[in-house]
Amino acid sequence: FENHCCRPLFSQTNHGNFKTLCISATYSPVSVKSGDRFIPTRAGSNWSINFHYANENCRSPSQNHKAKDTTSDSSKDAVTYAALLRNELLGSGIETVQDPHTDERRHAVPSQDSHSLFKYAVHTKRVPFHSDNEVSPYSLSPLSNKSHKLLRSPRKPARKISKIPFKVLDAPELQDDFYLNLVDWSAGNLLSVGLGACVYLWSACTSQVTRLCDLSVDGDSVTSVCWNERGSLVAVGTHKGYVQIWDASGGRKLTSLEGHSARVGALAWNGEQLSSGSRDRVILQRDVRTPPSAERRLQGHRQEVCGLKWSPDHQHLASGGNDNKLLVWNSSSLLPMQQYSDHLAAVKAIAWSPHQHGLLVSGGGTADRCLRFWNTLTGQALQSTDTGSQVCNLAWSKHANELVSTHGYSQNQILVWKYPSLTQVAKLTGHSYRVLYLAVSPDGEAIVTGAGDETLRFWNVFSKTRCTKESKSVLNLFTRIR
């Protein structure tokens, strides 16, 4: 935390494909008391729906995808304008507009009145001006009362996500290795970072830096770090295959676990149990309170294990490997209960949803670039999207149904997604190397990202407002994509 120039540790610095509008085959004069025009009957046509379909068919798939990614302000303006047109042309009587990002059925059309759309009649009795569909005779506005209410309805302010990090720290010797996990944020607001052969702790409250351990005396280096849920213990995986458990407050090593024959690149706590994944293709589960001999060996991957995450209910472990496989294990079997093979590259990025039970998302490497969502309760694939670049890490918001992904080749960007619409809420750039490391703050509002450019960048991306609708299961929300 000194001047940047001294290179210190952590210094702060179809037009042709319109859908034909259906018109009833019955052409009979409409019985009108005070008119003599001959009007065909169109009572069976839903003009607003046909109008919407025609607009959708005019767009190419790429245009539809781009329209999906527009900013929230322009989306709200477009929805408001469409509602205004429906009021004035179709008499829909819309008074409020919902946020297009919070309601996936935003294109649903209000129920139409049963009367004919083009019915002709001469009014002999004037409707009082206080009616919902009339305006004051003294008003200069051509809009109806409903439209006035629509324009006066309160609009939820759009959430602004700053595209500039609020803090930047230098992190010398932060490795540019896709298979490592060198950054984690504890419940006690301490950031642990593996730099070369050392692990450093940075306090987000006081900005103080403490060196926790130095493995250079043993000729070893740090390959992964992971805090336990209470934030009192930090596990450190090493290049030689050891897993060390350190007491952060006392700064002392409690134990060193053996068992792996190669580097340990992935760690995940589940209460007092610690899971470790290694280049030796084995996952070891051990209780840190028992002798090291009491361990479970999970063998299912054919190449290095680079991603490990326990589900929020502590019942299932998801593992990703360089063999392009995503496996799901339960707490009792030595064989995977589910195996997903849709990815075309290494699966390091894994995250369980804290909002929908059994919802798992994974991201693939450079040859895949996709986010894929899985219903682990049924073993079904839900949906996927091509992000355009290597997916390095994933994390869900604790308060809203959103997630953040960090990317490598070739754009090195950070993306915030709305789920399940998969609308991009924000795109953040700044790292000049692959954004390999990601951790979420204890309050769930900020994230920290690390890259091979040897910097740590802090971003405010999530709001603290809790989502009002939460489901206990994905079974009643999604169906399998065909």
Automatic annotation (TrEMBL):
InterPro entries: Cdc20/Fizzy, WD40/YVTN_repeat-like_dom_sf, WD40_CDC20-Fz, WD40_repeat_CS, WD40_repeat_dom_sf, WD40_rpt. The keyword Calcium does not apply. PROSITE patterns: WD_REPEATS_1 (PS00678), WD_REPEATS_2 (PS50082), WD_REPEATS_REGION (PS50294). The keyword Cell cycle applies. WD repeats lie at residues 215-256, 298-330, 428-461. Belongs to the WD repeat CDC20/Fizzy family. PANTHER family: CELL DIVISION CYCLE 20 CDC20 FIZZY -RELATED, FIZZY-RELATED PROTEIN HOMOLOG ISOFORM X1. Pathway: Protein modification; protein ubiquitination. GO terms for cellular component: anaphase-promoting complex. GO terms for biological process: anaphase-promoting complex-dependent catabolic process; cell division; positive regulation of anaphase-promoting complex-dependent catabolic process. One of its GO terms (molecular function) is ubiquitin ligase activator activity. Coiled coil: none annotated. Keywords: Cell cycle, Cell division, Mitosis, Repeat, WD repeat. It comes from the Eukaryota. Residues 169-459 form the CDC20/Fizzy WD40 domain. This is Fizzy-related protein homolog.
